[in-house]
Known about the structure:
Elements lengths: L7 H8 L4 E5 L5 H12 L8 E6 L2 H11 L10 E4 H18 L7 E3 L4 H4 L11 H6 L2 H7 L2 E3 L3 H11 L1 H10 E6 L7 H12 L3 E6 L14 H8 L5 E5 L7 H11 L14 E6 L3 H17 L9 E5 L2 H8 L6 E3 L4 H5 L2 H14 L5 H8 L8 H13 L3 H15 L5 H11 L2 H5 L9 E5 H4 L4 E6 L24 H12 L2 E10 L1 E3 L5 E3 L16 E3 L1
Amino acid sequence: MSTFNPTLQQQAAIDCEDSIVITACPGSGKTTVMKEKIRGITPNLSSHKGVIAITFTKKASEELKKRCKENAHDTKLSFFGTIDSFCLKELILPFLGRIWYGKPSDCKIVKELDSHQQLYLSGKYNSPTCDELSSDAGFKALYDAGILWMSSFAALSLFILNNSVSARRYIRARYSHVFIDEYQDSSQAQHELFIKIKELGLIATAVGDIDQSIYQFRGSQPEFLLALTEDNANFQHFELDLNHRCHPSIVNYASRVLDPGYKLIAHEDDIYVFRRLINGSLKNAAEHVSPWIDDWLEKNTINNASDVAILAKKEISLREFSTGLTHNHRLYTDSPLNDIGTECADVYSDLLLYKYGAIPTAQDVIEKYFFQLPARNMADIRRQLKGIRAEAILEAFIEKSNGLLELIGFDEFEEENDAVRLIWSKDTWVKLFKPIAKDEVQLMTLHKSKGLEFKIILHLDMEEWSFPHRIPGDNWDDINYPSLAEDTNLHYVGVTRAELCCILIRTSLRRNAQGNYGNSRPSYFLGLPQLEGLYQSIT
Ligand SMILES: Nc1ncnc2c1ncn2[C@@H]1O[C@H](COP(=O)(O)OP(=O)(O)OP(=O)(O)O)[C@@H](O)[C@H]1O
């Protein structure tokens, strides 16, 4: 394992023992610094305490947890997970019943409210705040009707902390620090919850990058990260601005996408951002690109095909591209269990990940879900887990998994069982639960690529109308990009996933909304004048 030599900026953020906010560019070591801080804090905690480490996605949380636990480091009773799972496990399930009565564990958790459920609420909310929750009796009525709406979890948690002495006491007694990654994607309710937890006495660390804000459509607002940087009384501000991941020419290109006045980094090497127009459709583009991958492998530019990622704004583009790719590949899509989005569905996903090997050991599952059970039960749980790994018959797998889910505390899983039946029936879904193979080229949307890094990026969808998203105006020539700021950040995220080289691909044919092919025009992003001289065109 290579040793980590922190820069002065990184070391200062690692050493600071007060509440801090870190703003950082892509590849500057945000995750690395968070890991170092957590590993520095946990040895000094008593065995019943831990830190709260919140990340935006489950994948990011697994990655952070793995990096914190490297070399058998004991992270004590730390929580690693998304903000929704923190709210649910640590506040809503144990404490909401004490304020609103009833049993939160009996409620159905829904990602989106259907039209009937929406009728309970007097307003239309994207991601409600605690004030909205307190002033609209519909939220309690929704709970009384057995519904817990995920978008209201942060507001509900703040409501609980404001109204329950025992909830406040519990968080203080159990946790010493709170960390939140990707703070630029926090909603107002999540921001207020973070501040509240800090006010309880925990030392707080928020980490983020305004320019990587890509979830504004669901209520996230980068302003909250900015607000922390200006709150000098409560947060020391640290900036990390050295990109350790990307070749300087990639940093220059990506930074100029955001800021036409960005002062370029001087470098003597070639430029490793390429633009390529490929004749035909996305399928044709894949047929064209496949020999490039063979060539890179042959010349040892990359060690494995999995070092190459194909990124696109739209999943449908990746699907079309995949039909022409001659290499083994993996297309990351949401499985039917992700679509359900409940806590139970998440655990079920992990059981499948364990069955198919992406979660390597039974111990990983035990540490995550069964740590609170008496030690004498562990041998039996290990045996049951091994049983699901070996099980080849679907209904027997479901029965065994249901037994484990019951042990964790779930008692209703019919919807999840049906999702597992669907997954089992389709190889492309089953594949999502297996470890990535070295020979698999990785295909994913730009949204899903956040936080990841690859040697080579092929960035699709560089046609006008595809990316940035464009909609028709009153006249045919009207230019109307409804989410330009967010799409610009998304483009920036995509380009900065590349270590060695980024290739921007435009196809001469583009499929329109009706599914018909027509001649494409270059994307708005390819016309930005500040990018001249910062890329090579390849033919
Ligand atoms: N001081 C350092 N020296 C050399 N490499 C480093 C250093 N700090 C971080 N790195 C490497 O740089 C890469 C990016 O680090 P990391 O993933 O922590 O960045 P990040 O800021 O979380 O990235 P992003 O926001 O783009 O996902 C990693 O491969 C990491 O190992």
